[in-house]
UniProtKB/TrEMBL annotation:
<feature type="region of interest" description="Disordered">
    <location>
        <begin position="1"/>
        <end position="24"/>
    </location>
</feature>
<protein>
    <submittedName>
        <fullName>Protein ALTERED PHOSPHATE STARVATION RESPONSE 1</fullName>
    </submittedName>
</protein>
<feature type="compositionally biased region" description="Basic and acidic residues">
    <location>
        <begin position="8"/>
        <end position="24"/>
    </location>
</feature>
Length: 92
């Protein structure tokens, strides 16, 4: 009788160990999936940045050039107005 009692006590331990092993394997699978998704996300992000950033910088360069031309135009108009005003002050 004691042997039968000992065997029934070992079965729950074996079952729990089997469950722990199954959960450990599942956790490792989930970790592998997670790491793969990180890798895929990183690759997609880098690709999108490499494809998109040159266009952003080209647009910014064009905008900066237009702004520079506008400021130079305003500056030149103000300068010519000041020069004209100075000439009027010299003439009687």
């Amino acid at each position: 009788m004691p042997e039968a009692l000992g065997e029934t006590n070992k079965d729950p331990v074996r079952e729990k160990r089997a469950k722990v092993d199954a959960l450990r394997a599942k956790a490792e699978d989930e970790k592998a999936k997670y790491e793969k998704s990180i890798s895929v996300t990183r690759a997609m992000t880098m690709n999108n940045l490499q494809m998109g950033l040159p266009h952003v910088f080209q647009a910014m360069t064009g905008f900066a050039n237009v702004c520079t031309q506008a400021f130079e135009s305003v500056h030149n108009q103000a300068k010519s107005t000041d020069d004209l005003h100075n000439v009027k002050m010299i003439l009687p």
